[in-house]
Design goal:
Blueprint: H1 2-9, E1 13-15, E2 19-21, E3 32-34, E4 37-39, H2 45-58, H3 63-67, E5 79-80, E6 83-84, H4 87-90, H5 93-99
Antiparallel strand pairs: 1-4, 2-3, 5-6
Length: 102
Amino acid sequence: MAEGMLRAFFSAIVFSRRLMTKPVGMKNEELFCNVIASGETTLPYPALRCILKNIEKTLGRTSEQKEEGKIIIDLDILLFGEKKFKLDDWSRDFNKVLLKEV
């Protein structure tokens, strides 16, 4: 569902395959489904981030769930232009693999 919502905002978006991983540093033991998307936008960073947070909210993410370690959707920006974000995520093995696919 998230992929469809992202396609509605970004016509030239590509997705990696889905990769299931164990949570890192959380009590929750449910597997995460990880996907990397790559696309272009003319939006400024704050507007893009707002769109992603609204998609998360639409899909049911709440701050209470995050506090409980239940992450049903998490859309992050890792790279915007030349600026890297979420630097710890760049070192995660699954991200290294998926980044090569986009």
